Amino acid sequence: MRPIVLDVLDALPEIAMMAYDRHLDVIGSTRKAQALHPIYLPGTNIARFAYLGAETNRDLQDWEHKADLIASALRSSLNRHPEDNIFLDLVGELTARSDVFARSWALNIDHAGQAAVLIRHPEAGELRLNQHELPLGGGSEDTLVVWTGADESSASKLAHLVG
Fold first, then answer.
1. How far apart are CA 48 and CA 38, in angstroms?
2. Is the pLDDT reported for residue 141 higher than 90?
3. Which tens digits make up the pLDDT trace of 105-115?
């Protein structure tokens, strides 16, 4: 990770945000994002965790939408790097082990970079969040994700999460 990205994450620990690379590996996150959900811990592969992890909130009403967004982000990156064996291996693993991934992958939707998501937090309960994805540029394909409350209650709950 570029030092400036780490500096931004370290300087703003009270904002829920994380950065991921072109393989959807979390490369850095604030304490607030880590408190939000374990998927945002550095070193986690977002796609593998979402489709195969035990802590994914698959029972939330927006789970299929989230699954579609993750598959779309993976496809978008793969389209820019079709020779990347890491992608090919990941897509093969997820296709073989997750019917949800196979369905989402087959939809071939376009990832828009902004979404509303639901997260169930063990203490704060259900949070409705706006998810904003910002390319970090500078020759990298890293992306910064920032979450804000989609409603007053979720904003308050997010503000009071201890990171």
1. 13
2. no
3. 888 776 656 67
The alpha carbon of residue 49 and the mean position of all alpha carbons in its chain are separated, in whole angstroms, by 10
State the Cα angle at 75 between 135 and 96, rounded to 5°: 135
**Average pLDDT of the residues of the chain:** 86
24-68 pLDDT, tens digit per residue, is 999 999 999 999 988 999 999 999 998 998 766 666 667 777 788
Kindly report the length of the chain: 163
Long-range contacts of 44-53 (CB under 8 A, 24+ apart): 45/90, 46/20, 46/70, 46/73, 47/71, 47/74, 47/90, 47/94, 47/101, 48/90, 48/93, 48/94, 51/94, 51/97, 51/98, 51/100, 51/101, 52/94, 52/97, 52/98
